[in-house]
Amino acid sequence: MPLRTPAAAAAALALALGLCAAPAQAQAQAQAQAQAEYPFRDPSLPLQQRIDDLLGRLTLAEKVSWLHQYQPAVDRLGIGLFKTGTEALHGVAWSTDIDNRGNVVTARGTVFPQAVGLASTWNPDLVKRIGSAVGDEARGYHSENPRVWGLQLWAPVVNLLRDPRWGRNEEGYSEDPLLTGAISTAYGRGLQGDDPDHLKTAPVLKHYMANNNEVRRDTANSSLRPRVMNEYEIPAFRTAISADAATGVMTAYNLVNGRPATVTDLNASVRTWTDRTLFTVSDAGGPNNLTGSQRYFATKPEAAAAMVKAGVDSFTVDDTNGAPTVASVNAALDQGLLTEADIDRTVRNILSVRFRLGEFDPDGGPYGKITKAVVDSPGHRALNRRAATEAMVLLKNSRSGNEPPALPLDATEKVAVVGPLADTLYTDWYSGKLPYQVTPLDGIRERAAGTVGTEGVDRIALKADGRYLTAQAGAGGDLRLSATTAGQAEQFDVFDWGAGIVTLRSVANGKYVSRANWSTLANTQDQPAGWFVQEQFKLEAQADGATLLRYAGYETAEPWFGPDVYVRAAADGALSLTTAENATRFTKETVRSGIDEAVAAAKSADVAVVVVGSMPFINGREAHDRTDLNLAEGQRALVEAVHAANPRTVVVLENSYPTTIDRLAEKVPAILWTTHAGAETGHALADILYGTANPAGRLTQTWPRAGTELPDILDYDIIKTGSTYLYSTDEPLYAFGHGLSYTTFGYQGLRAVRDGDGHRVSVKVTNTGSRAGDEVVQLYTRQHSSRVKQPVRQLRGFERVSLAPGASKTVTFRVKTADLALWDVTRNRFAVETSTHDVLVGSASDHIRQRTTIRVDGERIPARDLTRTVRAADFDDYAGVELVDETKASGDAVEAAPGEWIAFSGADLGRGVTGVTLGVATDTAASVEVRLGSPTGRLVGTVAVPATGGIYRWSTATAALARTSGRHDVYLVARGDLRIRDLVLTP
């Protein structure tokens, strides 16, 4: 045989490979063709038929694997990976995926105003458009990388803003459930899109429920008496779910009535509010808390089984590693704690949303063609500017004598723009990255020639042993005690955020000093950020004039960190952390006074605009509540100094929570409030300041006055504590619904007439001023008589209307009689009482312009009947007790300590009762006194309660009572630690 040439050999090899590859390629093509012909891929078939087909093709192992947040691909069926959870609170923010540096992957797109700012627009139509834009951008990112950018969006947050100290106040909408429901429904509908069968994205409401504190957030118990739960907490979630504007909920970290929210029964609550199938998830790490910090279950299989049975479909835990979840669920199956039917039910819930997202449609469904070209589009920029403008709230705008109001400004005047937030924009933990920035100074400079600006912060140098703390230029690097003179590398701008916390920005490169690599200090950060926010410091003055530099990052609160938080410079200048005793004693030199520079700028201008506020990573955020609501002392001093130098001072307050600014409100002529509102903040601010836009934002929560005593942040009973505008009788600094305009509005002809199953309320609103503007017309009611404590007033409707000068519009609301119901604890249902109601219409809860009354024909709640078994949790009043779990699966009980009590009002004891039986559980012997009229009233009997063997080991305890008849308030007073499930009085 002749030898082959190289070319001939290559040709022969290619032919051989081709012959070998042909069957494999044909097999792959045949498999792909078969996959394409599966019934579950046919969009013409009914949804349930498609779900049934796919479910039947999955193995048990594949189904179990889908209970983790990273649902792995099933290659044999041509199904790719599906991940839950892209954050999209006010724009696409970040994914749960981790990059190669260990950080979450963050989007760079349209960052709309923070959620509380969106609600401040009181404009659901606008919020829906914003939601739609966010949904488009989520689709755009998904089209580029579906592994990182999932289409199940963890937004919006609907937790009620009952306490302004909550670190996550910026994430919620309002202290009012009706307003929260309207805004969340609008945002959710925008995220979902308008297709009746398909979803643009799948919004998930956070965090179910009563999750409004960060202190002990995974172990604290939100004790919700039935009225608070049913009248206040639940409506915030139910509104969007019942309107099919959300596809599920995320369970919260906290306990609700003693039971972790992670295993609170969603099947008996949330899933009953809609006919749509919901896909629910746990909060991150929640499954492990059940056996960890909460110690609620002894083993992970028990915890996993409880979650599945409670209706949680997806375990958000262990990042991308689904193995622990799979092991726990498989063990639960092996132990008989779960069945395959339980798994099938859960996977059906998951598939219902995956199908609606178009994942299994050949063309990806109606939203499958959206590309990343939509991200940061001109249309989204314009929408963002409008949102930031409509969200701004004019808190004050006074005039002096015959002078016009302080705002709007005249573009011919010279303006000094000063303050620590004058020339920067901050993002928050749930923000994406800003693709560009228009700062307040930028926006005003575009309008007013000759505008001057300064941040008004001190520039300092720190010196010890003849050497200065020195930073590196460029990208930055480790700080050292080095130079003997104070040049730019030795200078730092000091930003005051209150409570002694400051940040230090290096003049050398404009970056912030951070505790880099968990050891030394370096000037490397663009802004304070990250989970631990390691850019926080304190400059602690000592009695001898020295200054200690203290690191104050959030992890210093952890007990494992220890006392080593003070900066020490070694002989070679290297920095480390040590105790106060061993810290380096610096001399602080002020290179430039921020107040002096701001005062000089203010004196040189016709008007001063001072931009102050918060840093979202420092002044409270996830895992950290605020300790007070004060503006930083240094910022307050800056405003007062500027105002003294130029009485025409406008304060722009940029933060995301009510702030006690009483002293400033008394002094300065104008105050404008905005949240951290994204890249268009400066344009929006200028639009308002110069009157291009007329302010019409309204506050969505009460701003308390300085000195107002707020209840314990862990006390969720707004009725008992008199909290929020609903129950508070304190005079606020600014009331719920407050906001001013550059024009005036008149209200006329309020009418309230019966209309079917309710009343139709109408009022004529007229723009009586010289400028076009928006008015937010607000409808409130107040019930005159009731069996129980009623709200001072309660929002029943609102509408934002736009009116030209002299124009009028009749605004009509419909109030259903059922909307006026209260939760009747005597019968465990809603009831409408027969009563007269005030109907109040105005521009704020404390600015009522028209009022009338209506008579509502309802029912009279009958007297308590304690001769039938009554749940202890259905008390009318109490002192000190806490609502807890009757069992780990269901039911509420009352946990009482010595001296604590519950009361049942107006009990009709008929011709007389002579005995009492209590359902009780306790580790140790206790007793319960039965008293009449008050907790110290007539003692009619004492129930001895022996130890039952544990808090979930229920028994009954009985006692004789002194014969008592007629109507009484009956009190159960604990003498010892115990739980009470129910009671009955016997003849």
TrEMBL record:
As for what it does, the entry says: Catalyzes the hydrolysis of a non-reducing terminal alpha-L-arabinopyranosidic linkage in ginsenoside Rb2 (alpha-L-arabinopyranosyl-(1->6)-alpha-D-glucopyranosyl) to release alpha-D-glucopyranosyl (Rd). It is not able to hydrolyze alpha-L-arabinofuranosyl-(1->6)-alpha-D-glucopyranosyl (Rc).
What positions belong to coiled-coil segments? none
Q: Does the keyword Signal apply?
A: yes
InterPro entries, per database record: Actin-crosslinking (IPR008999), BXL (IPR044993), CBM6 (IPR005084), Cellulose-bd_IV (IPR006584), Fn3-like (IPR026891), Galactose-bd-like_sf (IPR008979), GH (IPR017853), Glyco_hydro_3_C (IPR002772)
Q: Which GO terms describe its molecular function?
A: alpha-L-arabinofuranosidase activity; beta-glucosidase activity; carbohydrate binding; xylan 1,4-beta-xylosidase activity
Q: Which residues form the signal peptide?
A: 1-26
Query: Out of the domains of life, which is the source?
Result: Bacteria
Q: Which SMART domains match?
A: CBD_IV, Fn3_like
Residue span, CBM6 domain: 868-986
Q: Does the keyword Hydrolase apply?
A: yes
Provide the GO biological process annotations: arabinan catabolic process; xylan catabolic process
Give the species this sequence originates from: Planobispora rosea
Q: Name the chain's protein.
A: Exo-alpha-(1->6)-L-arabinopyranosidase
